User: What shape does this take?
Amino acid sequence: MNMLFELRTDEDIRRQAVSENERQIHDALIGRGPWQLTERQRRLLECLRGRQGRIQAISIAELVERNGSAPRQIKADVRELVINFRLAIVASRDGDTGGYYFATSADERITGSQDYLKEALKLLHRVAILRNDQDMMHLLGQRQIEEGKSV
Assistant: This one.
């Protein structure tokens, strides 16, 4: 009997995400991509490498201890790794278990980006108050053009 659809378990999906994360990490570490890692980013990426899934999150305090960088610098470096290398690094702000990790499911990606989305909407609201409607439409149009270029 032929099946039209492949049935994939959550574990199959997770394994595929981990494999894709590892491929992207490897590419970044060997310099395959549009930018070169700084030595500081390389050390950070090595610390994050095995942190696949929310349960494996590493706290910013531990990253500070291991890398000797300030929390603000670690956050900036993580941002650069996500943007420049398209790595699926997300943050959990869950008290004792919070920290950075590689997302291994759509749910982890969505949950991990929720705080960023809330902040972006707050900033957009602030800009809307400071600008007029025509300026806002122009800015949103520019963003759509930029997104089209990066895809």
Summary: The chain has a mean pLDDT of 86. The chain has six helices and two strands. The beta strands are 89-92, 99-102. The longest strand covers residues 89-92.
